[in-house]
Amino acid sequence: MDCKEFQEYISPYVDNQIDSVKKNEIEEHLKICSSCFFDFKVESLAKRIVTFRFQKATCPEAIRNQIIFNLASQRSFSSKVINYIKVLFANKTIRYAIAFGVLLIGFLIFYNPFENQKEKYYYELAKIVYQNCKEIRNHNFPEKTIFASSHDVVMNFISSNGIKNPKMPKTQWSIIAAGIENYQNYQAAHLLFKCENDTIYMMECEMDKISHSGYLNFVKEIHKDLAKKKFFKVDHEGCSIILRLENGVLMAFAMSSDNKHSMNELIASLD
Question: Residue 173 has what DSSP assignment?
Answer without folding.
Answer: P
